[in-house]
Amino acid sequence: MQCAGEENWVDSRTVYIGHKEPPPGADAFIQQRFPDNRVVSSKYTFWNFIPKNMFEQFRRVANFYFLIIFLVQLIIDTPTSPVTSGLPLFFVIIVTAIKQGYEDWLRHKADKAVNQCPVSVIQRGKKIKKESFRITVGDVVFVKEDETFACDLILLSSSRDDGTCFVTTASLDGESSHKTYYAVQDTKAFRTEEEVDSIHATIECEQPQPDLYKFVGRINIYMDNEAVARPLGSENVLLRGATLKNTEFIYAVAIYTGMETKMALNYQSKSQKRSAVEKSMNSYLVVYLCILISKALINTVLKYIWQADPNKDEPWYNERTEAQRQRHILIRAFTDFLAFMVLFNYIIPVSMYVTVEMQKFLGSYFIMWDDDMYDEELGEGAVVNTSDLNEELGQVEYVFTDKTGTLTENNMEFIECCVDGHVYVPDAICNGQVLSGAAAMDMIDTSPGPGGREREELFFRALCLCHTVQVKEEETVDGIKHGIHQGKSASFYISSSPDEVALVEGMKKLGFTYLRLKDGQMEILNREDEIERFELLEVLSFDSVRRRMSVIVRAASGDIFLFCKGADSSILPRVISGKVDEVKARVEHNAVEGLRTLCVAYRPLSPEQHQEVCRLLSGAKLALQDRDKRLSEAYELVEKDLILLGATAVEDRLQEQAADTIESLHKAGMKVWVLTGDKMETAAATCYASRLFRRNTQILELTTKRVEEQNLHDVLFDLSRTVLRHHGSMTRDNCSSLSNDCTDYGLIIDGATLSAVMRPPQEDLNSGSYKEIFLEICRNCSAVLCCRMAPLQKAQIVKMIKASKEHPITLAIGDGANDVSMILEAHVGIGIMGKEGRQAVRNSDYAIPKFKHLKKMLLVHGHYYYIRISELVQYFFYKNVCFIFPQFLYQFFCGFSQQPLYDTAYLTLYNISFTSLPILVYSLMEQHINMDILKKDPSLYKDVAKNSLLRWPTFIYWTVLGVYNAIVMFFGTYFLFDNTTFTSNGQMFGNWTFGTLVFTVLVFTVTFKLVLDTHYWTWINHFVIWGSLVFFVLFSLLWGGIIWPFLNYQRMYYVFMQMLSSGPAWLSIILLITASLLPDVVKKVIWRALWPTITERIQSADKLYKGQLSEFTPLASLHAPSKAGGRRRGSENQSNPRRSAAFSKKLMFTRWQRKPDYCTFTPLLRFVDGHSPHHNAYGGAEPETCV
Fold first, then answer.
1. Smallest Cα–Cα separation from 127: which of 144, 112, 111?
2. How crowded is residue 1053: how many other Cβ atoms within 10 Å of its Cβ?
3. Which amino acid positions bind ATP, per UniProt (predicted)?
4. Contact at 8 Å (CB) between 536 and 529?
5. Active centre residues (catalytic)
6. Any known ligand binding at 794?
7. Each residue of 121-143: pLDDT tens digit?
8. Helix axes 276-306, 329-344, angle to 10 degrees
């Protein structure tokens, strides 16, 4: 018997092809149990939906709290009906459950469609159709062109003679390029059902694991009762979700099914990211919970002090029953405490969570609908994968960006190659004439000489052979298939690496055309139009650790060559001869120019050496344990004693507006780090081109080369001293972000040194913690470049900055699978829809077509979202303080009897209907500053940085304002009606009229408070704000105007009409609303006049110019004026010549040594009447003036 789950402890699994037992002499036949091919991506089933969903929802603190309150209201005699807290709670729960249930139903539907898809399976030599979920491990599957693989398969044979097939893995890693996969050598000739059914073999392979690019296994084929073992690698595995292309059909065997396929193992959910605003909300919630408990406690204590007097304890009209008298005082006190908790519980706004969810969900559509972020070329706009982090876009302090494909286009173009110091440029221009590349334009010498000619051709052949490029042999034009020889336009190169395509196309321009790989023979068309054939013996594929790839080929003459290409750092140390200095000089020159460089070398192999190489490689490939390690050791032994041929240079152009975007991010106060796998010189050149490093940036190097000369400890302390000495005397803020006079620092670090810095300190060494010193240096650098980075190191850097003492908000942006770990680690992850596949896009929180769209996403959308949600959160707490504090005060006037001040309907609908829609619309529509101004002046982003609008002083101000408003409403109503509680017919006002009057003032006050805070008015704002007030009045008239048969009380009957029939009531409503709002208005006016923020200056200027301020360029914020004496410039009352309306408004900025000052000017500056521009009202340096 096998225990459930035991197979998980087995290192490998044995798969019997076609479920056939091995021959008697072979291993014992042990049939393992594997899951079926059913895929489940849904979260719930029909039976567990309600309990599981309820459990998840009540894990939220606010929901659980309201459930407890609701249960308390049901169990004990409380002053308010259970409906008042039950209705809002169940509304929230039901809406959320419907949303999640619908999303899960869609997942069920998608799963069903996938699981019931028909698949062809070979059984007893015949093809039969099976539903996808019925496939089991060991089934032989038949797949036709353009069909998708139903599970993970090992390729047995294909319709192509060489046993290869082409596959696209777009749904797995997003790479749309065609990849080549290879059939098992011994089975590739079997092409009919009967032949395939006759295969007798077993496969031993590792247990399923999620790495898409890794597979270790071997196949044992039984021929005449003897087993032949062949290695299996990732090149033999066809993954579920990939699609067959350019191949008529294939036969393959299922090895992993259902939830064990690599695709399913990659379904793992991302960790939940929480925004800074959500954390602030939770802190405020705790404060308000403390306020609630203290209110209930105070009232409970005061109630028992009040009831110490027997006359007050049991008045004649409210005598207690015998059972109540018998109850212990502690039980009574606890019951009263709970009753007060229920009475005041509305101070905790449950509806705030729903409103915030709706605001985030609906707000995310504004990003997706933004036409400025739509890319015509891709035909796609921005995508929001997580709406929970919208406001976090307005809080970013560090931006970590990839280089290739993010800052650059990842569109490679072959620029030149250098062979033994001779430079060849395709289509070079000489004396005004374009020479074709075939002329091999020599830029250094006139001729390479006879020996050089041979080396040159060997170099070109090496580049034509050392790659994994596929040729699309036939292109259909008007329904007719054209072969590759019918003109060069018909050939079509496909590769998973754009560099390789650029190199092969570059060789084509220089006269050597790669034609195809057929029957293990690589074919090249040389300059004389002769076809050369090379037998491909081995491919030593590229990996990011070795940073090189090699091929072993046999020429027609019988000579065997190993051709190797890779990064200079991995090729040059293995070279024993060749013109190393000349090539190295050219590589460094090209790297400084920002070109991507590769070195090319070769090694002739004797037949004995070749046999030794084959033995080494086949031994490593057959290993089931540590195959990667053994392969890399074998590669190290093979790729040595190389002869250097030359180097290539490929250009990867900067993306459009990349430099402008980085400059804007710098001005917005963000620090930009570039994390790349490229070499230092290339990356540095890109950083200069993209203005990450400016002309005056002083570069500090923390590289392997420098650490070898000095030890790491000394280098770090040197850099630390340099940076801190400068920053001690002059902070970066002292110098204008527009000025180039200020020295700033840029740091360059490579992967190897970073590993040394990140290593935990050794106790026996006096190393201390290098990480802290490194962080201190980085903090004082305006830009950091990390080159030669492994994907995991990118994530480590982000994690290190996140964990530093300031806990800054980080953003990571990248386009490739190697950026996924960094994107998942950062607070906000952004994927770019690039050429390196869609893995980054799928794992990101947001996706944008180009790097330039990051500018609007952060400076405009991020800024707006943060402003909106911070107002929403503060306003919700404020309106609930205004709502509940009068209820607290009322207890002092009703003998702490838990009498509610407001009617049940008002308690229930206050947060749901009367005050919820205006703030929701505000939080979706508000634009406190024009969008164009935010884009043109990035420094405004600093205004909202570091969660500045949700700090404790602001929170306390809103709370105090709420308490003040509540006191004014309650005592204002109390004193105004102290003596004049008579209507015109002599009737007195009762307690429900009193409460309704307070509630009416409350609803109008909190709504008008929002009106005062709104800067951007649309018809929707008007409709919702005034509509909410009208709805309140109509509801009150209806609620009090009819005797409702389902109510057991009619206390509100005619109350609202009677209140409105009183003249003093109208007067008091107007007076109390004015008195409540006046201090806030006065505070705003004084603050704006005396200490205006940059935002307020811009708002004033924008109003002055009727919203046209953004039309003037250059534009930046109206920063605080200098304290220098003299009148304000532009204030002279000078009469100017009349101008046309178009020129009546201008904006001018003046750049000083200190912060820029922006002033609005009268249209014509009086520099034309002979006055020197030096005589300005400010003292100090001469300004540069732009109008």
1. 144
2. 17
3. 402-404, 500, 542, 565, 596, 676-678, 788, 794, 818-819
4. no
5. 402
6. yes
7. 998 888 899 999 999 999 999 99
8. 140
Handedness of CA 755, 761, 762, 767 (dihedral sign): positive
Give backbone dihedrals phi and psi of 517, rounded to 5 degrees, phi first.
-115, 115
Domains of the chain: 12-36+135-266 (2.70.150.10), 38-118 (no CATH), 351-364+860-1078 (no CATH), 383-407+655-724+744-756+770-848 (3.40.50.1000), 412-440+450-473+490-653 (3.40.1110.10)
Enumerate residues 6+ apart whose C-beta is below 8 A from 181.
Answer: 155, 164, 165, 166, 167, 235, 236, 237, 238
Q: Quote the CA–CA distance of 228 and 186 in Å, as a whole number.
A: 9
- The answer on whether 565 is annotated among ligand-binding residues is yes
d(CA 776, CA 720): 7
For position 1142, what pLDDT does the model report? Answer: 36
Report d(CA 206, CA 212) in Å as an integer: 13
Rounded to the nearest 10 degrees, how much is the dihedral formed by the CA atoms of 339, 342, 345, 346? -130
CB count in 10 Å sphere of residue 734:
11
The pLDDT score that the predictor gives to residue 883 is 92
Q: What is the pTM of this model?
A: 0.71
d(CA 382, CA 831): 10
Contact between 680 and 787 under an 8 Å Cβ cutoff? The reply is: yes
Task: Give 1122: exposed, middle or buried? Use CB within 10 Å, 0-12, 13-18, 19+.
Answer: middle
- Between CA 23 and CA 496 the distance in angstroms is 41
Ligand-binding annotation for 678, yes or no, is yes
Q: How long, in residues, is the chain?
A: 1187
Is residue 14 marked as binding?
no
Tokens of 435: 């020479």
145 labelled ligand-binding: no
- Tell me which residue of 745, 749, 744, 746 sits closest to 680, measured CA to CA: 749
H helix count then E strand count, the chain:
37, 41
Taking 70 as the pLDDT cut, the residues of the chain under it are 1-10, 25-29, 170-177, 266-272, 310-320, 324-325, 427-451, 473-491, 496, 544-545, 726-743, 761-768, 817, 835-839, 978-988, 1044-1050, 1105-1187
- As given in the structure block, the two tokens for residue 749 are 């670090």
Beta carbons of 841 and 646 less than 8 angstroms apart:
no
Distance separating alpha carbons of residues 804 and 808, to the nearest angstrom: 8
Percent of the chain with pLDDT over 90: 22
Tokens of 881: 């303080």
Give the tokens for residue 1089.
Answer: 């006049």
Q: Check if the beta carbon of residue 425 is closer than 8 Å to that of residue 418.
A: no
Tokens of 148: 């998708």
